[in-house]
Structures are given as C-alpha cells and as structure tokens.
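Design a sequence for this backbone.
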C-alpha cells in the first residue's frame, strides 16, 4: 500500500490506527472483566442458594427436603434454576421440582463431585442437551447421631440464558460507546492536527511571498520544533541572495573591464579603415582639371607623371599596408588575449570568493607601461601626456588585481582629465604599495567623495559609464587590507587618488 504524501493524512492514519488498537484492546479487556464479574456474581448467588438448601435440609435415616422451597425458582419447572443433592457415590438423593425435566446423566453427577472434599465448593459450566448451565456444588459431611455421618453434595444449576443476554447487552453497549468515542476522538484529532500544522501553512505563505518578492526572509513567529528549519532556510536564502548578487556584480565588473580592450580593438580597426595609402584621388583630380581647362597636352603629361608617381608609391604603400595590418593584427591579438584573461579573472573571483587571493611576487612597472599604451590608444583624440614616477619594484599579490586597480584609476583619470595624468607608485615598506594618480580635470566636490566610491554612483551623467570602476578599486583594496582616498588635486584642480595595498 502506498503511503499518502501528506503529513495530515499520515497523522490521521497513525492516529486512527492507534485509536483502533487502543479501543480494541480496551473493549476486549472490559468485555472480559464484565464477563468475569457477572460469573462471580452468579457464583455468589448460587452459593447463597446452597446455604438456603442447607438450612431447610433434614437427615435422619435419609435426606428430607420440604415440598415447597423458599426460593420460588426451585418450585417452578422451566424456571432455569434447579437444585440437586447427591450422595457419597454421586447417586441422586433429591431434585427440586423445577428440575423435574432436567436430564442429569452419570457423567454430570460425577463432574459435580470431582475434586471436592468436605467443605469444598466448585463453580463451573455444564451442558444439558443444547442448553448451557452454570453450576455451584458444595460438599458437606452431615452428622446424624453420634455415629451416623452422611457425605452430601448440594448442587445448584442456573441457565446461562440470562447471563448471555446480559453479557451481549453490555457488549453491544460497550462497542457502540467505544465506536462513538473513537469517532469523536478522530474528529478532535483531525482538528488538533489541522491546528498543529498551521505553522507549516504560514511557512508556505511566507515562502510564496519571498518567491513573489514581497519579503526577503521568513519573519513569522514559528514554534521551536520548526525554528531550526526556518533558521536554516533563512541562511540558505541569504547565501543564495549573496551568491546572486556576487554573480551580478561579477558580470558588471566583467562588462566594465572589457570596455578598454574593446575600445582599443575599435580604434585599431578605424585606423586600418582610414589609412590613405597612395594619394590616388589627388592625382585623378589634377588630371581632370587639366582636361577641363583645354590643356590636353598638359593633361597627358600630368597623367604620365601621375602614373609614374603611382608606380613609385605603390611599393611604398604596399609596405605601409603590410606594416599597418601587422600592427593592427598584433594589437587585436593582444587585446583578445587580455579579454580572455579578464574573463578568467572575473569568473575565478565569482567562484572562489572575493576573499581568496593568489599571492606571488611580480614586477609593477611593466603593468603600468602596458596600461599607459592601452590608454593612449583609447584616448588618442585627447593626446593625454602621462607623467610616470615608477621604480622597478616588486609586489606580493595577484597581478590581475593590480592591473584591475590601475586600469580603472587610469581610465577615470583619462576620461575626466584634460591633457595630463600623473602616475606614481611607491613603497612604504616591504609589504605596502602606494598608488597615486592625479588628473587635471574638473575634480570631485569634497562632500561627494564618499558617494562616488559606491557602485552606480556617478557625478557626471554626461560622460558614458556605470559608476563601477572606483567601487571595484575599493573592493580590491579592502581584500588587501588597504584604503582608497580622493582629495582635490595639488593645484586646486583635478582629483588626487591614493590607494594603499598590503602585500
């Protein structure tokens, strides 16, 4: 049998099974107890009847009993109550008028005296034809005179009809009562189970609200039995939310980091498209002017000169094309490799966690040099002059982290600067690296310096960007136990950014 996939159904089935077993056993116990109680009552009543027979019995030479007995049942045939008196050898000495039609065989008489000694009594059941009887026997030693002693066995029989009817009535009442009580208890149990499962319905409701975005965590007052479940669910929700936020930020950082390589690739492709390799258009315009003015001979001479010049410049242009194509090709390859590194770096941050740092010693100067070349290509139209103050020093950390920090700072400086960017890297001690970058742009108001360090915060809405770069710098610096500060430039213009990293 398949177990229902429902706590309420399982609890109801379990409660029903327990009630069935409990009341079943209770019914059997009560039925047997009542039966024994009635049998005991019958036995006691029959003993009383025997004592009544003893009180009216007389023995001289033989047993003499009165014709009419005090108990009416002994005097009426078919009353269901009969009495016998047996002698020493189980011979019948007397029978009450009510048992005149009662067939008492020898085996029955022997059964009445079995295991009896003087003063003993016995209660049991016997069968007369198809009708069952209770019997109570009592053996006495009747003394008549000095030497005349007569052993007698007084037996009283009562039909079991009344007993069985009483037991059956009790049994029917008992089982009906137990059935009614069971139904009531099942209904009560169902109500109790429903009430007990209310916190689970509240839990379901709260989870639905979380799914719909109407709340963030489970906030209900749950019982202590499921408090651990709700607490762990809240932790799971919190971790899932943190993981989702981390992935979102990683994608934003990835998109932001890929902008510079893509800009370089775009600039390289534009350089290739705008290349003028021969001045062909200029020669053709000179020939057309000579023809228009009527100087055909001059036109022919001009044409010959143009062809001669084209032939001379063809080789030069061919070499120039090859050089430019090679340069563009190398630039694109470098930036594609850089993009692959960026993607691997950001995905690693998302997987292993932002607190994990792969530390190794590396040179700082080549990183700055490569980034300056990249910035020159991205901001070629601004013709920014870079002032570098860098020694050939080492730093213990992740090379990609430093590249990310310097790339974002230099990109911001070039974006908002006018003509000059200053970059200075120095060491306070063996484990600390200080990065200082100045630009000659409009600068940042002092009261806005904290705001721009947060994700998505930008002061200049006219300049393209998402307000991510400085936030990335802050996060990486925090991983290295460092700091980031923004102050106005030394000359009162631009922005001076200081980043301290601990290796």
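Sequence:
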């Amino acid at each position: 049998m398949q177990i229902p996939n429902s706590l309420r159904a399982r609890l109801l089935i379990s409660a029903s099974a327990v009630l069935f077993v409990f009341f079943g056993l209770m019914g059997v116990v009560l039925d047997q107890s009542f039966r024994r109680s009635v049998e005991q009552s019958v036995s006691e009543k029959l003993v009383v009847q025997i004592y009544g027979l003893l009180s009216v019995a007389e023995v001289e030479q033989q047993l003499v009993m009165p014709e009419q007995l005090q108990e009416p049942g002994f005097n009426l045939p078919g009353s269901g109550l009969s009495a016998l008196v047996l002698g020493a050898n189980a011979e019948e000495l007397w029978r009450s008028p009510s048992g005149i039609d009662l067939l008492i065989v020898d085996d029955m008489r022997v059964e009445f005296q079995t295991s009896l000694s003087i003063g003993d009594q016995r209660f049991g059941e016997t069968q007369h034809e198809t009708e069952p009887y209770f019997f109570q026997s009592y053996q006495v030693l009747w003394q008549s005179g000095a030497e005349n002693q007569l052993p007698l066995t007084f037996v009283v029989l009562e039909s079991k009809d009344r007993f069985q009817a009483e037991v059956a009535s009790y049994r029917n009442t008992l089982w009906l009562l137990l059935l009614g009580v069971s139904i009531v208890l099942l209904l009560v149990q169902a109500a109790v189970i429903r009430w007990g499962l209310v916190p689970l319905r509240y839990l379901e409701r709260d989870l639905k609200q979380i799914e719909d975005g109407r709340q963030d965590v489970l906030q209900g007052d749950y019982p202590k039995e499921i408090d651990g479940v709700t607490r762990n669910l809240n932790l799971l929700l919190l971790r899932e939310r943190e993981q989702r936020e981390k992935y979102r930020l990683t994608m934003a950082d990835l998109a932001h980091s890929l902008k510079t390589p893509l800009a370089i690739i775009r600039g390289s492709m534009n350089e290739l498209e705008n290349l003028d390799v021969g001045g062909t258009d200029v020669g053709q315009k000179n020939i057309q002017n000579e023809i228009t003015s009527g100087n055909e001979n001059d036109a022919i001479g001009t044409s010959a000169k143009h062809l001669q010049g084209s032939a001379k410049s063809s080789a030069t242009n061919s070499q120039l094309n090859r050089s430019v194509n090679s340069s563009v090709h190398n630039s694109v390859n470098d930036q594609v490799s850089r993009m692959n590194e960026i993607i691997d770096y950001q995905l690693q941050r998302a997987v292993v966690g932002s607190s994990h740092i792969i530390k190794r010693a590396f040179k700082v100067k080549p990183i700055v040099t490569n980034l300056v070349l990249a910035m020159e290509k991205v901001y070629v139209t601004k013709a920014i002059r870079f002032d570098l103050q860098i020694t050939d020093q080492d730093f213990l950390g992740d090379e990609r982290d430093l590249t990310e920090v310097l790339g974002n700072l230099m990109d911001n400086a070039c974006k908002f600067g006018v003509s000059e960017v200053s970059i200075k890297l120095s060491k306070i001690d063996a484990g600390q690296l200080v990065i200082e970058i100045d630009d000659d742009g409009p600068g940042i108001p002092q009261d806005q310096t904290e705001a721009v360090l947060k994700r998505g915060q930008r002061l200049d809405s006219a300049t393209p960007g998402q307000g991510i770069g400085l936030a990335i710098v802050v996060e990486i610096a925090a991983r290295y136990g460092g700091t980031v500060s923004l102050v106005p430039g030394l000359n009162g213009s631009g922005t001076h950014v200081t980043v301290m990293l601990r290796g």
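Residues 276-280, 296-304 have pLDDT under 50 and may be disordered.
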